[in-house]
């Protein structure tokens, strides 16, 4: 917008604001000013230049000081309530700028309504999330109390997100898609690719097979976009900040998207099944494109042979194939071809705050919804020794044992980890498979060497975990100010409280850890629940 147009728009908006403040209809104002309503409407919208004689007449009509009015034309004042919304993430994602809000500010009632509706939306969304969380807790409690081998159908999961639906989809297919493997293998044959790929080879494939041009351009200031595929312009734009390994992956994933569109693979893989969430199908497509990238860079046959030779040495495999530790860890979870089947693994990616951003269960392990998990897991403990691979046996409350290993991946920006990213990549398999792994640990007594762990604090059955961050829904939170366990959130057991009562005085410093967990006597309600679950 040039300066003249901006001035016209400001004059029109301010005059419109003055008229609306005085509750004067546009037709009445036009009549008093001696112009047609249509002409005044165009002036108020900034589409017509307002002659100075008409402007002076309008200022007298609205009882405005001309000098003061002219001095405020460049201010571009935005309604205060609307201005606060500029910092809201939703408005940022909708690309609503201050100029748009300034136009809206000329409508005081509308501006107030928009601000009120947005705040109502935020409050309602917060209340809805709280209600859904409570309903989810009640539903889990009801389901766990009613499923005792009678074949009851679990209730609705109120916290079932599109990401949960994608995870279930991958687990249903055992994270193996032969259609994508076949397409990737065909491209490798056609272009006679070696074991280690380079980004230049993949870019050549993109240009020759799909007639796309690749541009290396920095994104607009403030944008973190590293890849943009424009199907209409037939261009792939990549960030110059991408180093060789992530660059290869982004080009390979882009090729995967084009192959899936051309062959209609997403429709074939999904079949006639309906998704619960509207976003799920696109998320599945993203996952399948990433799967294709892994299949193109790590061809199943060659990768399977190297996995067997190296005994699942993820670090060595990443060097052999010239790709990242995380990409190899993902690919290890794809080895479900019945003729060349690898060990079952579960996969986790966690940040330093304990948030789970990726997960896949190929071992049957249950993950808590909401992204959290047990602090005793190797994937979290790996941050204590980020330069080493953290290995451990773990035992779940039901007695299932796993062998897990994890390594931290650092991606600093300008030499700063705080500006960059830090993820822990964790893999786990059944404990009896540890002997097949290069990272396996020796053990003479698995039950003794395994770390007692759970799913997450909210659903863990353990009564004496010293790492609890929250009380478990499995037990009544019986609190006694005179009896303290080594962890505040551990449930107080009946015998621990009774001992203090038999002694005739409270035990302010008792840690309540006497006796093994197997001898603990729970309160009546917890005993009933435990018997019912078993």
Structure description:
This protein has 534 residues and is α+β, with helices and mostly antiparallel strands. It is 46% helix and 12% strand. It contains 22 helices and 11 strands. The strands form 3 sheets. It has a 6-stranded mixed beta sheet. Strands 1-3-2 form a 3-stranded mixed beta sheet, with helices on one face. A hairpin with a 5-residue loop joins strand 8 and strand 9. Helix 12 packs parallel to helix 13. The longest helix is centred in the N-terminal third of the chain and has 39 residues.
Structural class: alpha+beta
Strand order of the largest sheet: 7-6-10-9-8-11
* Percentage of residues assigned to helices: 40-55%
Strand runs, count: 11
User: Could you give a short account of the major beta sheet?
Assistant: 6 strands, mixed
N→C terminal distance: 71 Å
Percent of residues in beta strands: 5-15%
Radius of gyration: 32 Å
Report mean pLDDT, rounded to a whole number.
82
- Number of alpha- plus pi-helical segments: 22
Which parts are unreliable, with pLDDT below 50 for 5 consecutive residues or more?
147-155, 507-534
Principal-axis shape: extended
């Amino acid at each position: 917008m040039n300066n003249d147009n901006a001035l016209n728009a400001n004059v029109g908006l301010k005059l419109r604001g003055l008229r609306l403040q005085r509750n004067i209809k546009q037709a009445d104002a036009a009549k008093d000013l001696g112009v047609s309503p249509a002409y005044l409407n165009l002036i108020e919208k900034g589409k017509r230049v307002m002659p100075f004689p008409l402007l002076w007449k309008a200022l007298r009509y609205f009882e405005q000081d001309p000098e003061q009015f002219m001095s405020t034309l460049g201010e571009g004042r935005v309604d205060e309530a609307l201005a606060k919304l500029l910092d809201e993430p939703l408005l940022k994602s909708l690309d609503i700028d201050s100029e748009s809000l300034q136009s809206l500010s000329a409508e005081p009632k509308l501006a107030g309504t928009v601000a009120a509706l947005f705040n109502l939306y935020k409050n309602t969304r917060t209340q809805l999330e709280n209600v859904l969380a409570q309903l989810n807790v009640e539903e889990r409690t009801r389901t766990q109390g009613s499923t005792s081998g009678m074949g009851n159908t679990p209730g609705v999961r109120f916290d079932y997100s599109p990401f949960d639906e994608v995870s279930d989809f991958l687990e249903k297919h055992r994270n193996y898609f032969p259609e994508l493997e076949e397409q990737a293998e065909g491209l490798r044959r056609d272009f006679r690719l070696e074991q280690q790929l380079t980004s230049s080879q993949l870019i050549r494939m993109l240009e020759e097979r799909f007639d796309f041009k690749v541009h290396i351009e920095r994104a607009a200031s403030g944008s973190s976009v590293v890849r943009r595929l424009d199907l209409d312009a037939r261009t792939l734009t990549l960030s110059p900040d991408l180093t060789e390994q992530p660059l290869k992956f982004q080009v390979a994933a882009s090729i995967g998207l084009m192959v899936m569109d051309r062959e209609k693979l997403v429709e074939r893989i999904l079949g006639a099944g309906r998704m619960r969430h509207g976003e799920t199908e696109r998320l599945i497509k993203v996952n399948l494109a990433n799967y294709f990238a892994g299949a193109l860079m790590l061809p199943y046959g060659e990768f399977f042979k190297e996995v067997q030779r190296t005994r699942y040495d993820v670090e060595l495999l990443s060097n052999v194939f010239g790709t990242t530790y995380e990409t190899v860890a993902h690919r290890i979870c794809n080895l479900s071809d019945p003729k060349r089947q690898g060990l079952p693994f579960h996969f986790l990616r966690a940040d330093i705050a304990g948030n789970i951003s990726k997960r896949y269960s190929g071992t049957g392990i249950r993950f808590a919804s909401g992204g959290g998990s047990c602090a005793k897991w190797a994937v979290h403990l790996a941050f204590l020794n980020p330069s080493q691979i953290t290995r451990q046996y773990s035992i779940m409350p039901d007695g299932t044992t796993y062998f897990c290993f994890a390594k931290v991946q650092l991606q600093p920006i300008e030499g700063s980890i705080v500006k960059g990213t830090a993820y822990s990549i964790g893999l786990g398999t059944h404990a009896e498979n540890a002997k097949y792994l290069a990272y396996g640990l020796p053990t003479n007594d698995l039950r003794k060497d395994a770390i007692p762990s759970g799913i997450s604090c909210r659903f863990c059955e353990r009564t004496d975990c010293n790492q609890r961050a929250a009380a478990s829904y499995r037990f009544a939170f019986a609190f006694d100010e005179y009896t303290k366990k080594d962890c505040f959130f551990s449930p107080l057991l009946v015998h621990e409280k009774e001992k203090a009562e038999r002694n005739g005085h409270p035990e302010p410093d008792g840690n309540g850890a006497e006796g093994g967990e197997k001898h603990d006597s729970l309160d009546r309600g917890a005993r009933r629940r435990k018997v019912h679950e078993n």
